[in-house]
Amino acid sequence: MRLNWKPFVLSLVVLLILFPFVYLVFLSLASEWRFPDVWPSYIGFKNWVTVFNSEAGLLKSFFSSLVISLSVAVFSTTSGFLISKAVFYHPKKRVLTLLAYFPYILAPVVFAACLSFFFLKMGLFGNMTGVVVAQFIIAFPYALLFFSSFWNEKVKSYEDLVATLGGNKWQTYTKVLLPLAKGLILICFFQTFLISWFEYGLTSIIGIGKVQTLTIKVFLFIKEANYFYGALSCCLLIFPPVVLLYFNKRYVFKKFV
After folding, report:
1. What span, in angstroms and rounded, lies between the C-alpha atoms of 173 and 189?
2. Is residue 182 scored above 60 in pLDDT?
3. So where does this one cross the membrane (predicted)?
């Protein structure tokens, strides 16, 4: 009798994927877990209660990260869509597209160090506005490159057809371009949100510790060897990406299948 290993292998793969997330939740509920104990002396919601009492500042960091990431995602997606059209019609579009890769040549920390002088002169050092601008500089080129594949001769023919029928630019965008690019716009919004959400290097340099996003908090707790708060921060950190993943699969992915 031949054994069917497929269900076993599939279950093992699912278990390996879920284990880190389950362990993070477990660690966020634990405290006072010292060697050589095989089980923590306390498991409960004490750490979570502390967070909701704002003693650790995690809720503030969570909402700060949310505001920053949403701002970066909205601005970069909108400007990336509009400017990618101008780049497509530009006679030197290859050169301009190549320049969009420049921010990714350097490591984020090195790139932030190069920008720090200009941000200091403009008063954008150590505040949320500066962090949004710095992350926008990274997210915008991604959006520009992402939308570069959308513009082609077929889309241009649709624009010409609208113009021939007497439509204006507003009607071209609202009736033709935006409906055509709706799925790509949502995906780009999700991607740029995640770029901003998990950004550490730029935020740590430009924010100089005053702007403490959730990612900064995670590294801070790990440096302090506070693994329980670090796990709790990671739980909060992965919550928005999981929500975005659900919406991406529910409303976007089905459109392309």
Report:
1. 18
2. yes
3. 7-30, 62-83, 95-119, 125-147, 176-198, 227-247
